[in-house]
Protein backbone atom coordinates (compact mmCIF):
# COMPACT_ATOMS: atom_id res chain seq x y z
CA UNK A 1 0.00 0.00 0.00
CA UNK A 2 1.25 3.49 -0.84
CA UNK A 3 2.58 5.58 2.06
CA UNK A 4 1.66 8.93 0.55
CA UNK A 5 -1.22 10.49 -1.36
CA UNK A 6 -1.23 13.01 -4.17
CA UNK A 7 -3.69 15.89 -4.16
CA UNK A 8 -4.55 18.64 -6.63
CA UNK A 9 -4.75 21.84 -4.56
CA UNK A 10 -6.74 24.78 -5.90
CA UNK A 11 -4.97 28.00 -4.94
CA UNK A 12 -7.23 30.58 -6.54
CA UNK A 13 -8.15 31.50 -10.08
CA UNK A 14 -6.89 28.87 -12.49
CA UNK A 15 -3.94 27.85 -10.30
CA UNK A 16 -3.88 24.20 -9.21
CA UNK A 17 -0.75 22.67 -7.73
CA UNK A 18 0.19 19.04 -7.17
CA UNK A 19 1.09 18.18 -3.58
CA UNK A 20 2.12 15.02 -1.75
CA UNK A 21 0.89 14.30 1.78
CA UNK A 22 1.48 11.37 4.15
CA UNK A 23 -1.18 8.69 4.02
CA UNK A 24 -2.96 8.65 7.40
CA UNK A 25 -4.11 5.70 9.45
CA UNK A 26 -7.90 6.06 9.84
CA UNK A 27 -9.10 6.92 13.33
CA UNK A 28 -12.27 5.83 15.08
CA UNK A 29 -15.16 5.99 12.60
CA UNK A 30 -12.98 7.26 9.75
CA UNK A 31 -12.69 5.61 6.33
CA UNK A 32 -9.71 5.92 4.01
CA UNK A 33 -10.68 5.43 0.36
CA UNK A 34 -8.46 5.04 -2.68
CA UNK A 35 -10.21 6.99 -5.43
CA UNK A 36 -10.84 5.21 -8.72
CA UNK A 37 -12.69 8.06 -10.43
CA UNK A 38 -13.91 11.54 -9.55
CA UNK A 39 -16.44 13.49 -11.58
CA UNK A 40 -16.48 17.29 -11.76
CA UNK A 41 -19.61 18.93 -10.38
CA UNK A 42 -20.66 22.27 -11.84
CA UNK A 43 -20.38 23.84 -8.40
CA UNK A 44 -16.59 23.51 -8.62
CA UNK A 45 -16.61 25.51 -11.85
CA UNK A 46 -18.67 28.15 -10.03
CA UNK A 47 -16.16 28.23 -7.16
CA UNK A 48 -13.15 28.63 -9.43
CA UNK A 49 -14.85 31.32 -11.53
CA UNK A 50 -15.81 33.30 -8.40
CA UNK A 51 -19.56 32.82 -8.77
CA UNK A 52 -19.67 30.80 -5.56
CA UNK A 53 -17.64 31.53 -2.40
CA UNK A 54 -15.29 28.73 -1.36
CA UNK A 55 -12.36 27.97 0.90
CA UNK A 56 -8.98 28.61 -0.70
CA UNK A 57 -6.60 26.85 -0.90
CA UNK A 58 -8.59 23.64 -0.99
CA UNK A 59 -8.80 20.20 -2.52
CA UNK A 60 -11.99 20.48 -4.53
CA UNK A 61 -14.17 17.64 -5.73
CA UNK A 62 -16.96 15.78 -3.94
CA UNK A 63 -18.26 13.24 -6.45
CA UNK A 64 -16.29 10.02 -6.60
CA UNK A 65 -16.11 6.26 -6.37
CA UNK A 66 -13.30 4.22 -4.86
CA UNK A 67 -12.25 1.32 -2.69
CA UNK A 68 -11.83 1.27 1.06
CA UNK A 69 -8.14 0.90 1.89
CA UNK A 70 -7.36 -2.49 3.33
CA UNK A 71 -10.63 -4.14 2.29
CA UNK A 72 -11.13 -3.26 -1.37
CA UNK A 73 -14.84 -2.65 -0.81
CA UNK A 74 -16.09 -0.39 -3.59
CA UNK A 75 -18.07 2.59 -2.26
CA UNK A 76 -19.47 6.04 -2.83
CA UNK A 77 -19.83 8.59 -0.04
CA UNK A 78 -21.85 11.61 0.99
CA UNK A 79 -20.94 15.26 0.57
CA UNK A 80 -21.67 16.30 4.15
CA UNK A 81 -20.07 15.32 7.44
CA UNK A 82 -22.51 15.70 10.33
CA UNK A 83 -22.07 15.63 14.09
CA UNK A 84 -25.16 13.47 14.66
CA UNK A 85 -25.92 15.22 17.96
CA UNK A 86 -27.14 18.77 17.30
CA UNK A 87 -30.82 19.67 17.12
CA UNK A 88 -30.86 19.59 13.33
CA UNK A 89 -29.23 16.18 13.14
CA UNK A 90 -31.71 14.87 15.69
CA UNK A 91 -34.56 16.24 13.54
CA UNK A 92 -33.22 14.29 10.56
CA UNK A 93 -31.65 17.31 8.85
CA UNK A 94 -28.04 16.10 8.98
CA UNK A 95 -27.26 17.94 5.75
CA UNK A 96 -27.84 21.15 7.71
CA UNK A 97 -25.91 20.07 10.81
CA UNK A 98 -24.83 23.07 12.88
CA UNK A 99 -21.23 21.83 12.69
CA UNK A 100 -21.39 20.49 9.16
CA UNK A 101 -18.24 19.97 7.12
CA UNK A 102 -18.33 19.22 3.42
CA UNK A 103 -16.15 17.06 1.23
CA UNK A 104 -14.39 19.19 -1.38
CA UNK A 105 -15.34 22.47 0.30
CA UNK A 106 -12.89 22.73 3.22
CA UNK A 107 -9.65 24.65 3.53
CA UNK A 108 -6.51 22.67 2.71
CA UNK A 109 -4.74 22.29 6.04
CA UNK A 110 -2.78 19.66 8.00
CA UNK A 111 -5.80 18.58 10.06
CA UNK A 112 -7.64 17.21 7.03
CA UNK A 113 -5.58 17.42 3.83
CA UNK A 114 -7.42 14.54 2.11
CA UNK A 115 -10.77 16.32 2.10
CA UNK A 116 -11.64 16.35 -1.62
CA UNK A 117 -11.85 13.90 -4.50
CA UNK A 118 -9.25 15.44 -6.81
CA UNK A 119 -6.67 13.22 -5.18
CA UNK A 120 -5.49 9.63 -5.05
CA UNK A 121 -7.17 9.17 -1.66
CA UNK A 122 -9.86 10.76 0.47
CA UNK A 123 -10.25 10.44 4.26
CA UNK A 124 -13.93 10.27 5.19
CA UNK A 125 -14.48 11.49 8.76
CA UNK A 126 -16.89 9.87 11.16
CA UNK A 127 -20.35 11.13 10.27
CA UNK A 128 -19.92 10.65 6.51
CA UNK A 129 -22.45 8.42 4.77
CA UNK A 130 -20.71 5.52 2.97
CA UNK A 131 -22.64 3.20 0.65
CA UNK A 132 -21.36 0.04 -1.12
CA UNK A 133 -21.50 0.01 -4.92
CA UNK A 134 -22.28 -3.12 -6.97
CA UNK A 135 -19.71 -4.13 -9.54
CA UNK A 136 -22.40 -3.86 -12.22
CA UNK A 137 -22.11 -0.05 -12.02
CA UNK A 138 -19.15 1.38 -13.91
CA UNK A 139 -17.08 4.12 -12.30
CA UNK A 140 -18.54 6.74 -14.67
CA UNK A 141 -22.09 5.84 -13.64
CA UNK A 142 -21.39 5.46 -9.91
CA UNK A 143 -19.28 8.57 -9.23
CA UNK A 144 -22.07 11.20 -9.58
CA UNK A 145 -24.25 9.29 -7.08
CA UNK A 146 -22.67 11.20 -4.18
CA UNK A 147 -23.93 14.57 -5.37
CA UNK A 148 -26.09 14.80 -8.49
CA UNK A 149 -28.06 11.58 -8.13
CA UNK A 150 -28.58 11.73 -4.37
CA UNK A 151 -29.65 15.38 -4.57
CA UNK A 152 -32.29 14.45 -7.14
CA UNK A 153 -33.52 11.65 -4.88
CA UNK A 154 -33.99 14.22 -2.11
CA UNK A 155 -35.74 16.60 -4.49
CA UNK A 156 -38.20 14.00 -5.70
CA UNK A 157 -38.97 12.96 -2.14
CA UNK A 158 -39.79 16.58 -1.33
CA UNK A 159 -41.90 16.92 -4.48
CA UNK A 160 -44.11 14.00 -3.48
CA UNK A 161 -45.72 11.47 -5.81
CA UNK A 162 -45.23 12.24 -9.49
CA UNK A 163 -47.41 9.39 -10.69
CA UNK A 164 -49.80 10.68 -13.35
CA UNK A 165 -48.64 14.28 -12.92
CA UNK A 166 -47.40 16.85 -15.42
CA UNK A 167 -43.80 17.68 -14.59
CA UNK A 168 -41.58 20.53 -15.77
CA UNK A 169 -37.81 20.26 -15.40
CA UNK A 170 -35.83 23.44 -15.95
CA UNK A 171 -32.15 22.91 -16.71
CA UNK A 172 -30.93 19.72 -18.39
CA UNK A 173 -27.49 19.40 -16.86
CA UNK A 174 -26.49 16.35 -14.85
CA UNK A 175 -29.10 16.94 -12.14
CA UNK A 176 -31.84 17.84 -14.58
CA UNK A 177 -31.25 14.76 -16.74
CA UNK A 178 -31.19 12.61 -13.63
CA UNK A 179 -34.51 14.14 -12.59
CA UNK A 180 -35.96 13.40 -16.02
CA UNK A 181 -35.08 9.71 -15.70
CA UNK A 182 -36.31 9.57 -12.12
CA UNK A 183 -39.59 11.30 -12.96
CA UNK A 184 -40.15 8.87 -15.83
CA UNK A 185 -39.51 5.98 -13.46
CA UNK A 186 -41.96 7.49 -10.97
CA UNK A 187 -44.78 7.40 -13.49
CA UNK A 188 -45.06 11.06 -14.50
CA UNK A 189 -47.68 11.52 -17.22
CA UNK A 190 -45.74 14.29 -18.97
CA UNK A 191 -42.15 15.43 -18.57
CA UNK A 192 -41.38 18.77 -20.21
CA UNK A 193 -37.74 19.87 -20.21
CA UNK A 194 -36.52 23.41 -20.81
CA UNK A 195 -32.89 24.47 -21.36
CA UNK A 196 -30.85 27.06 -23.25
CA UNK A 197 -28.67 24.39 -24.93
CA UNK A 198 -30.20 22.42 -27.84
CA UNK A 199 -27.72 19.56 -27.30
CA UNK A 200 -28.95 19.11 -23.74
CA UNK A 201 -32.55 19.01 -24.91
CA UNK A 202 -31.62 16.20 -27.28
CA UNK A 203 -30.11 14.29 -24.37
CA UNK A 204 -33.27 14.84 -22.32
CA UNK A 205 -35.28 12.77 -24.79
CA UNK A 206 -32.90 9.84 -24.25
CA UNK A 207 -33.55 10.10 -20.51
CA UNK A 208 -37.33 10.12 -20.71
CA UNK A 209 -38.57 13.61 -21.64
CA UNK A 210 -41.90 13.60 -23.44
CA UNK A 211 -41.27 17.08 -24.89
CA UNK A 212 -38.60 19.77 -24.84
CA UNK A 213 -38.64 23.54 -25.11
CA UNK A 214 -35.83 26.05 -25.66
CA UNK A 215 -35.57 28.54 -22.82
CA UNK A 216 -37.79 31.65 -23.06
CA UNK A 217 -40.57 29.82 -24.91
CA UNK A 218 -44.01 29.75 -23.34
CA UNK A 219 -44.26 26.88 -20.91
CA UNK A 220 -47.27 24.54 -20.65
CA UNK A 221 -49.32 24.30 -17.48
CA UNK A 222 -47.86 21.73 -15.08
CA UNK A 223 -48.46 20.23 -11.66
CA UNK A 224 -44.85 20.11 -10.48
CA UNK A 225 -41.87 22.19 -11.58
CA UNK A 226 -38.28 21.47 -10.57
CA UNK A 227 -35.66 24.11 -11.25
CA UNK A 228 -32.03 23.06 -11.63
CA UNK A 229 -30.91 26.16 -13.52
CA UNK A 230 -30.77 28.69 -10.70
CA UNK A 231 -31.69 31.37 -13.25
CA UNK A 232 -34.15 33.93 -11.88
CA UNK A 233 -36.10 34.47 -15.15
CA UNK A 234 -36.49 30.72 -15.62
CA UNK A 235 -37.70 30.31 -12.04
CA UNK A 236 -40.32 33.02 -12.52
CA UNK A 237 -41.54 31.34 -15.71
CA UNK A 238 -41.74 27.97 -13.94
CA UNK A 239 -43.76 29.50 -11.11
CA UNK A 240 -46.16 31.04 -13.63
CA UNK A 241 -46.63 27.64 -15.29
CA UNK A 242 -48.07 26.00 -12.15
CA UNK A 243 -51.66 24.86 -12.22
CA UNK A 244 -53.96 25.15 -9.18
CA UNK A 245 -52.36 23.18 -6.36
CA UNK A 246 -49.02 23.09 -8.16
CA UNK A 247 -45.61 23.14 -6.53
CA UNK A 248 -42.24 24.59 -7.47
CA UNK A 249 -39.10 22.99 -6.09
CA UNK A 250 -35.87 24.97 -6.23
CA UNK A 251 -32.62 22.98 -6.39
CA UNK A 252 -30.24 24.91 -8.64
CA UNK A 253 -30.05 28.21 -6.72
CA UNK A 254 -26.81 27.47 -4.89
CA UNK A 255 -24.90 30.68 -5.65
CA UNK A 256 -25.84 34.34 -5.19
CA UNK A 257 -28.26 35.69 -7.78
CA UNK A 258 -31.06 38.21 -8.29
CA UNK A 259 -34.31 37.92 -6.36
CA UNK A 260 -37.41 36.68 -8.14
CA UNK A 261 -40.82 38.30 -8.28
CA UNK A 262 -43.54 36.42 -6.42
CA UNK A 263 -47.18 37.43 -6.14
CA UNK A 264 -48.37 36.27 -2.69
CA UNK A 265 -52.03 36.53 -3.68
CA UNK A 266 -51.45 34.26 -6.67
CA UNK A 267 -49.76 31.70 -4.43
CA UNK A 268 -52.55 31.84 -1.86
CA UNK A 269 -55.51 31.72 -4.25
CA UNK A 270 -53.83 29.04 -6.35
CA UNK A 271 -52.88 26.77 -3.46
CA UNK A 272 -49.37 26.85 -4.87
CA UNK A 273 -46.19 26.13 -2.95
CA UNK A 274 -42.50 26.94 -3.31
CA UNK A 275 -39.80 25.01 -1.49
CA UNK A 276 -36.11 24.25 -1.72
CA UNK A 277 -33.71 21.33 -1.33
CA UNK A 278 -29.98 21.56 -0.67
CA UNK A 279 -27.81 18.46 -0.28
CA UNK A 280 -29.46 15.29 1.03
CA UNK A 281 -29.70 12.68 3.76
CA UNK A 282 -27.91 9.30 3.92
CA UNK A 283 -31.05 7.47 2.75
CA UNK A 284 -30.97 9.47 -0.46
CA UNK A 285 -27.45 8.25 -1.22
CA UNK A 286 -28.64 4.67 -0.74
CA UNK A 287 -31.58 5.40 -3.05
CA UNK A 288 -29.22 6.92 -5.62
CA UNK A 289 -27.12 3.77 -5.86
CA UNK A 290 -30.21 1.58 -6.11
CA UNK A 291 -31.72 3.87 -8.75
CA UNK A 292 -28.59 3.80 -10.92
CA UNK A 293 -28.23 0.03 -10.51
CA UNK A 294 -31.77 -0.49 -11.82
CA UNK A 295 -31.65 2.12 -14.59
CA UNK A 296 -31.04 1.38 -18.27
CA UNK A 297 -30.49 5.00 -19.31
CA UNK A 298 -27.17 5.86 -21.06
CA UNK A 299 -25.51 7.40 -17.99
CA UNK A 300 -21.94 6.79 -19.14
CA UNK A 301 -22.58 9.00 -22.18
CA UNK A 302 -22.85 11.99 -19.84
CA UNK A 303 -19.23 11.72 -18.64
CA UNK A 304 -16.13 12.84 -20.52
CA UNK A 305 -13.15 10.48 -20.80
CA UNK A 306 -11.01 10.77 -17.64
CA UNK A 307 -7.77 12.69 -17.32
CA UNK A 308 -5.07 12.64 -14.64
CA UNK A 309 -4.65 14.92 -11.63
CA UNK A 310 -2.26 17.10 -13.62
CA UNK A 311 -5.18 18.21 -15.80
CA UNK A 312 -7.55 19.28 -12.99
CA UNK A 313 -6.82 22.98 -13.53
CA UNK A 314 -7.84 22.85 -17.18
CA UNK A 315 -11.01 20.89 -16.33
CA UNK A 316 -12.08 23.53 -13.83
CA UNK A 317 -11.65 26.43 -16.23
CA UNK A 318 -12.47 24.87 -19.61
CA UNK A 319 -15.73 24.30 -21.44
CA UNK A 320 -17.35 20.87 -21.22
CA UNK A 321 -18.76 18.88 -24.09
CA UNK A 322 -20.75 16.70 -21.68
CA UNK A 323 -22.40 17.37 -18.31
CA UNK A 324 -19.51 15.81 -16.37
CA UNK A 325 -15.73 15.80 -16.81
CA UNK A 326 -13.82 13.14 -14.88
CA UNK A 327 -10.49 12.55 -13.20
CA UNK A 328 -8.78 9.19 -12.78
CA UNK A 329 -5.86 9.71 -10.37
CA UNK A 330 -4.12 6.54 -11.56
CA UNK A 331 -3.74 8.15 -15.01
CA UNK A 332 -0.83 10.27 -13.71
UniProtKB/TrEMBL annotation:
Pfam families: ADH_N, ADH_zinc_N
InterPro entries reported in the protein's UniProt record: ADH-like_C (IPR013149), ADH-like_N (IPR013154), ADH_phosphonate_catab-assoc (IPR017743), ADH_Zn_CS (IPR002328), GroES-like_sf (IPR011032), NAD(P)-bd_dom_sf (IPR036291)
PROSITE patterns (alphabetical): ADH_ZINC
Any one of the GO CC terms: cytoplasm
Domain Alcohol dehydrogenase-like C-terminal: 175-293
Cofactor(s) needed: Zn(2+)
UniProt keyword annotations, A-Z: Metal-binding, NAD, Oxidoreductase, Zinc
The EC number(s) this enzyme carries: 1.1.1.1
Residue ranges annotated for the Alcohol dehydrogenase-like N-terminal domain, each copy included: 27-135
Molecular-function annotations in GO: alcohol dehydrogenase (NAD+) activity; zinc ion binding
This protein's record includes keyword Transmembrane: no
NCBIfam families from the UniProt entry: HpnZ_proposed
Alphabetical list of PANTHER family matching this protein: ALCOHOL DEHYDROGENASE 1-RELATED (PTHR42940:SF3)
Family: Belongs to the zinc-containing alcohol dehydrogenase family.
Name of the molecule in the record: alcohol dehydrogenase
Organism the protein comes from: Nocardioides albus
